[in-house]
Request: fold
Amino acid sequence: MGMCFFVKRKLLDFAEGDIPECQAVQVRAHLESCPACRGRLAEIRRGLQAAGLHRETQMSEDFWKKFDVELQKKIFERECERFPRTGRRFVWVASVWRPALIALPVLVIMFAVATHLRVFSPAAREEALVRDAAWLMDEASDEQGTLSSDDDITADIEILYLADPSAFRENG
Amino acid sequence: MTTSADAQRSLECVRRFQEGEKAAFDELVRMHQRQAYGFVYSLIGNVEDAADILQEGFLRAYEGLGRFRGESGFKTWFYRILINLTRDMLRRRGRSRKLFSYSLDEEDENGAAKSVPDATWRPDKAAQEHECESVLNGALCELSDRQREAFSLRYFQGLKTEEVAHILGCGVPTAKVHIFRAVRHIGRIMGPYMDGRS
Reply:
């Protein structure tokens, strides 16, 4: 009885030939004297033989084409669920226009800095002062009615310069 | 059957997919779909249900492949997904469902390929094989879910007992017991047909 318990556990491996020789000898010896275990072994051998009858279910190529299309559709739907429409669009834009999106704010900042430097630099401020002075002089001359053209203004400045050059040097 | 070359190719596809190559997943699908379909069909016995489970299995694989770390083979991992989906479906449908409920005549309507008889084709032999297959399917129905899964994985898919145990989520001795009982039961049912053949 104890041997039957041992052999029963080994019968499948024995039938498949997947058992060490020392154990196979024991099983063979027991089988000669035990009709119950011989019956079990016969059932197992028939079961293994029956498993060999199984044919893989063959489906048509059309079935697999349809299957692939359906699968792709479902994968796309799942992707849409994971990334909602707006999110998808953003992802797409970001991937295609990413360099432009990064460059644009940088360019804006650089332009702003350049403009700031140009407007508020010492040279620009000095230039603006000279322009304002010329405009004021022009206005004053217009009020007096003595100067009416650019030639007259130039002539007047030349006279002023000849009279006192140091004043011009101090004002730049 | 899966060779180690196939397993390596699968793992290579998984690696490429994880690196962002979406086309690698299509390759995985093409590599495994037919065999996996046969496996699911052997468990559930219905063409449409098997296709639905396989599609859902591939979807889960697509979503989960990023987390796959390659500790087991892709096939083992994927078949575990399929087993869980099949168990869910069987649970939802209840035990009253009839496995292998369609006849061979219905195969063509459901998309199965027609087998074209060749010159050696004999109607009596074909009828006998058809009968044997029907009896085998009937015997499979009588097995418990675990026994059917173990039997199918071991003999229809050609996996080792250790892989069967891993997929079923049990120890190797337990898997061996499932396989042993399944084989013995099928041998008992198929006895008269097998004796006639041999």
Observations:
- The first helix of chain B runs from residue 4 to 18.
